[in-house]
Amino acid sequence: MPLNVPQLLGVSPSGFDSQCKYVTAPFRPTRSPLALALVRLSIAGYTFFVLLFTVIWDSTKGLGDSYFSYFTHLSYIGVCCYFFATGVQTFVYAHRRRKGGEGYLLQRWPKWLQVLHVLLVSTVVTYPFIVTVVYWALLSGSDSFSTRFNAWDNISVHAINSAYALHEVLLTNTPPPPWLTLPFGLLCLGGYVGVAYITKATQGFYVYSFLDPQKQHALLAAYIVGIAIGECVVFALVRTVMVLRERYCIRRGLVGNGSGIAATAEDIDEWEEIERPKTPC
Hints:
11 helices
Protein backbone atom coordinates (compact mmCIF):
# COMPACT_ATOMS: atom_id res chain seq x y z
CA MET A 1 0.00 0.00 0.00
CA PRO A 2 1.60 3.30 -1.10
CA LEU A 3 2.40 5.87 1.57
CA ASN A 4 0.30 8.98 1.63
CA VAL A 5 3.08 11.57 2.06
CA PRO A 6 0.78 14.60 2.51
CA GLN A 7 -1.12 12.75 5.24
CA LEU A 8 2.15 11.77 6.93
CA LEU A 9 3.07 15.45 6.91
CA GLY A 10 -0.13 16.43 8.68
CA VAL A 11 -2.23 17.29 5.62
CA SER A 12 -5.31 15.23 6.42
CA PRO A 13 -7.69 14.14 3.62
CA SER A 14 -10.58 15.39 5.76
CA GLY A 15 -9.22 18.93 5.73
CA PHE A 16 -6.12 20.91 6.60
CA ASP A 17 -5.83 22.32 10.14
CA SER A 18 -9.53 21.94 10.96
CA GLN A 19 -8.99 23.60 14.37
CA CYS A 20 -7.06 26.55 12.90
CA LYS A 21 -4.04 25.92 15.11
CA TYR A 22 -1.63 27.57 12.68
CA VAL A 23 -3.41 30.91 13.07
CA THR A 24 -4.28 30.96 16.77
CA ALA A 25 -2.48 31.35 20.09
CA PRO A 26 -3.41 30.09 23.58
CA PHE A 27 -2.13 32.93 25.74
CA ARG A 28 -2.92 36.60 26.13
CA PRO A 29 -2.40 39.10 24.59
CA THR A 30 -2.06 37.20 21.29
CA ARG A 31 -5.04 34.93 22.00
CA SER A 32 -6.88 37.45 19.87
CA PRO A 33 -6.19 36.39 16.24
CA LEU A 34 -5.86 40.04 15.23
CA ALA A 35 -3.19 40.62 17.89
CA LEU A 36 -1.35 37.48 16.75
CA ALA A 37 -1.54 38.67 13.14
CA LEU A 38 -0.07 42.05 14.09
CA VAL A 39 2.78 40.41 16.03
CA ARG A 40 3.61 38.11 13.14
CA LEU A 41 3.43 40.88 10.55
CA SER A 42 5.59 43.10 12.76
CA ILE A 43 8.23 40.38 12.92
CA ALA A 44 7.96 39.95 9.15
CA GLY A 45 8.42 43.71 8.68
CA TYR A 46 11.47 43.88 10.93
CA THR A 47 13.16 40.84 9.39
CA PHE A 48 12.52 42.24 5.91
CA PHE A 49 14.08 45.56 6.97
CA VAL A 50 17.13 43.72 8.35
CA LEU A 51 17.55 41.75 5.11
CA LEU A 52 17.09 44.79 2.88
CA PHE A 53 19.39 47.04 4.92
CA THR A 54 22.17 44.47 5.28
CA VAL A 55 22.19 43.44 1.62
CA ILE A 56 22.40 47.10 0.59
CA TRP A 57 25.12 47.73 3.19
CA ASP A 58 27.15 44.72 2.04
CA SER A 59 26.72 45.75 -1.59
CA THR A 60 28.18 49.19 -0.88
CA LYS A 61 31.19 47.41 0.64
CA GLY A 62 31.61 45.15 -2.40
CA LEU A 63 30.26 42.09 -0.57
CA GLY A 64 26.83 41.88 -2.15
CA ASP A 65 27.75 38.97 -4.47
CA SER A 66 28.30 36.64 -1.51
CA TYR A 67 25.30 37.73 0.58
CA PHE A 68 23.13 34.77 -0.39
CA SER A 69 25.96 32.30 0.18
CA TYR A 70 25.53 32.49 3.96
CA PHE A 71 23.22 30.02 5.66
CA THR A 72 22.41 32.71 8.21
CA HIS A 73 20.90 34.92 5.53
CA LEU A 74 19.12 32.07 3.73
CA SER A 75 17.49 30.84 6.95
CA TYR A 76 16.60 34.42 7.89
CA ILE A 77 14.85 34.80 4.54
CA GLY A 78 12.86 31.70 5.43
CA VAL A 79 11.90 33.25 8.78
CA CYS A 80 10.83 36.47 7.05
CA CYS A 81 8.75 34.61 4.45
CA TYR A 82 7.12 32.43 7.10
CA PHE A 83 6.05 35.33 9.31
CA PHE A 84 4.76 37.30 6.34
CA ALA A 85 2.77 34.33 5.01
CA THR A 86 1.41 33.22 8.36
CA GLY A 87 0.75 36.83 9.36
CA VAL A 88 -1.43 37.33 6.31
CA GLN A 89 -3.21 34.00 6.91
CA THR A 90 -3.83 34.94 10.56
CA PHE A 91 -5.12 38.39 9.56
CA VAL A 92 -7.54 36.82 7.07
CA TYR A 93 -8.69 34.40 9.78
CA ALA A 94 -9.25 37.29 12.23
CA HIS A 95 -11.16 39.27 9.59
CA ARG A 96 -13.43 36.33 8.77
CA ARG A 97 -14.11 35.69 12.44
CA ARG A 98 -15.20 39.32 12.86
CA LYS A 99 -17.58 38.89 9.92
CA GLY A 100 -19.02 35.67 11.34
CA GLY A 101 -17.11 33.42 8.95
CA GLU A 102 -14.64 30.61 9.52
CA GLY A 103 -11.26 29.40 8.35
CA TYR A 104 -8.39 30.94 6.45
CA LEU A 105 -6.99 30.87 2.93
CA LEU A 106 -4.45 28.04 3.19
CA GLN A 107 -7.17 25.59 4.22
CA ARG A 108 -8.72 25.94 0.75
CA TRP A 109 -5.50 26.06 -1.25
CA PRO A 110 -3.95 23.02 -3.02
CA LYS A 111 -2.45 20.29 -0.86
CA TRP A 112 1.07 20.88 -2.17
CA LEU A 113 1.00 24.41 -0.74
CA GLN A 114 -0.19 23.02 2.60
CA VAL A 115 2.67 20.51 2.55
CA LEU A 116 5.17 23.29 1.80
CA HIS A 117 3.80 25.29 4.72
CA VAL A 118 4.31 22.35 7.10
CA LEU A 119 7.88 21.92 5.80
CA LEU A 120 8.59 25.64 6.20
CA VAL A 121 7.30 25.60 9.77
CA SER A 122 9.67 22.71 10.60
CA THR A 123 12.67 24.81 9.50
CA VAL A 124 11.52 28.02 11.20
CA VAL A 125 11.30 26.31 14.60
CA THR A 126 14.71 24.59 14.29
CA TYR A 127 17.19 26.40 12.02
CA PRO A 128 17.36 29.63 14.08
CA PHE A 129 18.64 27.65 17.08
CA ILE A 130 21.28 25.96 14.91
CA VAL A 131 22.37 29.34 13.52
CA THR A 132 22.58 30.90 16.99
CA VAL A 133 24.57 28.05 18.56
CA VAL A 134 27.00 27.62 15.64
CA TYR A 135 27.69 31.36 15.37
CA TRP A 136 28.31 32.09 19.04
CA ALA A 137 30.18 28.81 19.62
CA LEU A 138 32.37 28.70 16.49
CA LEU A 139 32.29 31.91 14.48
CA SER A 140 31.90 34.93 16.76
CA GLY A 141 34.94 37.02 17.59
CA SER A 142 36.15 40.46 18.58
CA ASP A 143 34.60 41.99 15.46
CA SER A 144 31.09 40.77 16.36
CA PHE A 145 30.47 44.01 18.26
CA SER A 146 33.27 46.13 16.79
CA THR A 147 30.83 48.64 15.24
CA ARG A 148 27.23 49.61 15.83
CA PHE A 149 26.26 48.00 12.55
CA ASN A 150 28.02 44.72 13.38
CA ALA A 151 26.42 44.64 16.83
CA TRP A 152 22.93 45.32 15.50
CA ASP A 153 23.34 42.88 12.59
CA ASN A 154 24.66 40.03 14.74
CA ILE A 155 22.04 40.51 17.43
CA SER A 156 19.30 40.58 14.79
CA VAL A 157 20.31 37.52 12.78
CA HIS A 158 22.21 35.45 15.36
CA ALA A 159 20.22 36.05 18.57
CA ILE A 160 16.76 37.54 18.06
CA ASN A 161 16.14 34.96 15.34
CA SER A 162 15.89 32.31 18.07
CA ALA A 163 13.41 34.49 19.96
CA TYR A 164 11.16 34.44 16.89
CA ALA A 165 11.37 30.64 16.81
CA LEU A 166 10.60 30.45 20.54
CA HIS A 167 7.52 32.58 19.96
CA GLU A 168 6.12 29.99 17.58
CA VAL A 169 7.19 27.06 19.75
CA LEU A 170 5.83 28.33 23.07
CA LEU A 171 3.26 31.05 22.45
CA THR A 172 1.14 29.86 19.53
CA ASN A 173 -1.01 26.81 18.81
CA THR A 174 1.25 25.78 15.90
CA PRO A 175 1.29 21.94 15.91
CA PRO A 176 4.56 20.07 16.48
CA PRO A 177 6.31 19.31 13.17
CA PRO A 178 5.78 15.72 11.99
CA TRP A 179 8.83 13.44 12.18
CA LEU A 180 8.85 13.14 8.40
CA THR A 181 9.92 16.78 8.13
CA LEU A 182 13.25 16.00 9.84
CA PRO A 183 14.79 14.36 6.73
CA PHE A 184 13.75 17.46 4.78
CA GLY A 185 15.62 19.68 7.24
CA LEU A 186 18.70 17.48 7.00
CA LEU A 187 18.47 17.47 3.20
CA CYS A 188 18.43 21.28 3.14
CA LEU A 189 21.48 21.41 5.42
CA GLY A 190 23.27 18.95 3.17
CA GLY A 191 22.33 20.99 0.12
CA TYR A 192 23.75 24.09 1.76
CA VAL A 193 27.17 22.43 2.08
CA GLY A 194 27.11 22.21 -1.71
CA VAL A 195 26.27 25.92 -1.92
CA ALA A 196 29.25 26.71 0.33
CA TYR A 197 31.67 24.84 -1.95
CA ILE A 198 30.14 26.37 -5.07
CA THR A 199 30.88 29.75 -3.48
CA LYS A 200 34.50 28.67 -2.94
CA ALA A 201 34.78 27.55 -6.57
CA THR A 202 33.19 30.70 -8.03
CA GLN A 203 34.27 33.42 -5.59
CA GLY A 204 37.43 31.98 -4.08
CA PHE A 205 36.63 31.89 -0.36
CA TYR A 206 35.00 29.69 2.24
CA VAL A 207 31.81 31.15 3.66
CA TYR A 208 32.55 29.52 7.00
CA SER A 209 36.11 28.76 8.06
CA PHE A 210 35.22 25.37 9.54
CA LEU A 211 34.34 24.17 6.01
CA ASP A 212 37.93 24.61 4.79
CA PRO A 213 39.43 21.10 4.40
CA GLN A 214 42.96 22.51 4.17
CA LYS A 215 42.68 23.93 7.68
CA GLN A 216 40.28 21.54 9.38
CA HIS A 217 41.39 18.22 7.86
CA ALA A 218 39.55 15.40 9.67
CA LEU A 219 37.67 17.92 11.82
CA LEU A 220 35.70 18.97 8.73
CA ALA A 221 33.74 15.71 8.74
CA ALA A 222 33.21 16.06 12.49
CA TYR A 223 31.79 19.57 12.07
CA ILE A 224 29.41 18.49 9.30
CA VAL A 225 28.23 15.39 11.15
CA GLY A 226 28.02 17.39 14.37
CA ILE A 227 25.71 19.98 12.80
CA ALA A 228 23.53 17.19 11.37
CA ILE A 229 23.31 15.57 14.80
CA GLY A 230 22.61 19.01 16.27
CA GLU A 231 19.67 19.42 13.90
CA CYS A 232 18.28 16.04 15.01
CA VAL A 233 18.68 16.96 18.69
CA VAL A 234 17.15 20.42 18.24
CA PHE A 235 14.27 18.97 16.23
CA ALA A 236 13.54 16.35 18.89
CA LEU A 237 13.72 18.91 21.72
CA VAL A 238 11.57 21.46 19.91
CA ARG A 239 9.01 18.85 18.96
CA THR A 240 8.86 17.56 22.53
CA VAL A 241 8.33 21.06 23.90
CA MET A 242 5.59 21.72 21.36
CA VAL A 243 3.85 18.45 22.18
CA LEU A 244 3.96 19.27 25.90
CA ARG A 245 2.74 22.80 25.26
CA GLU A 246 -0.13 21.51 23.17
CA ARG A 247 -1.13 18.91 25.75
CA TYR A 248 -1.05 21.54 28.48
CA CYS A 249 -3.17 23.96 26.45
CA ILE A 250 -5.70 21.27 25.54
CA ARG A 251 -6.12 20.26 29.17
CA ARG A 252 -6.52 23.90 30.19
CA GLY A 253 -9.07 24.51 27.43
CA LEU A 254 -6.81 27.03 25.67
CA VAL A 255 -7.04 25.47 22.19
CA GLY A 256 -10.09 25.90 20.01
CA ASN A 257 -10.98 25.62 16.37
CA GLY A 258 -12.41 28.01 13.84
CA SER A 259 -15.90 27.35 15.12
CA GLY A 260 -14.99 28.15 18.70
CA ILE A 261 -15.32 24.50 19.75
CA ALA A 262 -12.68 23.56 22.31
CA ALA A 263 -10.19 20.89 21.37
CA THR A 264 -10.19 17.61 23.25
CA ALA A 265 -7.38 15.53 24.67
CA GLU A 266 -7.69 13.16 21.70
CA ASP A 267 -6.88 15.89 19.16
CA ILE A 268 -3.13 15.75 19.64
CA ASP A 269 -3.28 11.95 19.51
CA GLU A 270 -5.00 12.30 16.15
CA TRP A 271 -2.19 14.59 14.97
CA GLU A 272 0.36 12.00 16.10
CA GLU A 273 -1.61 9.25 14.36
CA ILE A 274 -1.55 10.87 10.91
CA GLU A 275 2.25 10.75 10.95
CA ARG A 276 2.27 6.95 11.04
CA PRO A 277 1.30 4.86 8.02
CA LYS A 278 -1.98 3.02 8.35
CA THR A 279 -1.76 -0.75 8.36
CA PRO A 280 -4.35 -2.63 6.33
CA CYS A 281 -7.11 -4.38 8.27
